[in-house]
Amino acid sequence: MAIRAYVDLAPQVSGVIASISPALRAGGTFKANEVLVSIDAKDFELRLKQALAEVASARSNLQLQQAKSDNAKRNYALLHPKKAVPPLSHCNHKFPKLEPNSQAPSPVQTLQN
């Protein structure tokens, strides 16, 4: 059988190789979309859990900062009842208001896109 094409392989992600197809050898043949090498998913799953934890932490921090800003506004209003709250007297973040059941894209959706 004549050689039809040479193929350069390059991984899209790093990780420990879990299995190698017998077709992946010198002179081996394989079909389009055939899995030649699989990578152990443990590292990816751990990184995904880490990303999910970081998202949860960021959401908590956002809620905390919004609560601080709201408290600063209320405190200013108590101390200066007839004045509008100036923008620099409270935490004036440019974050969207986080609703209790709001749905941001999950890290899994973000990684898959």
The helix/strand series, from N terminus to C terminus, equals EEHH
Q: In which range does the helix fraction lie?
A: 25-40%
Unreliable stretches (pLDDT < 50, length at least 5) are none
| Rg, Cα atoms, Å | 27 Å
| Sheet with the most strands, sense and barrel status | 2 strands, antiparallel
Strand order of the largest sheet: 1-2
Structural class: mainly alpha
Distance between the termini: 40 Å
Roughly what is the average pLDDT, rounded to an integer? Answer: 79
Shape: rod-shaped
Q: Compute the number of strand runs.
A: 2
The total count of helices amounts to 2
β-strand amount: 5-15%
Report on this structure.
With 113 residues, the chain is mostly helical. It has a domain at 42-112. The chain contains two helices and two strands, in the order E-E-H-H. The chain has helices at 42-79, 107-112, and strands spanning 17-20, 37-39. The protein has a two-stranded antiparallel sheet. The longest helix is centred in the middle third of the chain and has 38 residues, at 42-79. The protein is rod-shaped and about 90 Å long. It starts with 16 loop residues before the first strand and ends with a helix.
Element layout with pairings:
Elements: E1 17-20, E2 37-39, H1 42-79, H2 107-112
Antiparallel strand pairs: 1-2
Throw out a few tags for this protein.
113 residues; mainly alpha; 2 strands; 6% strand; rod-shaped
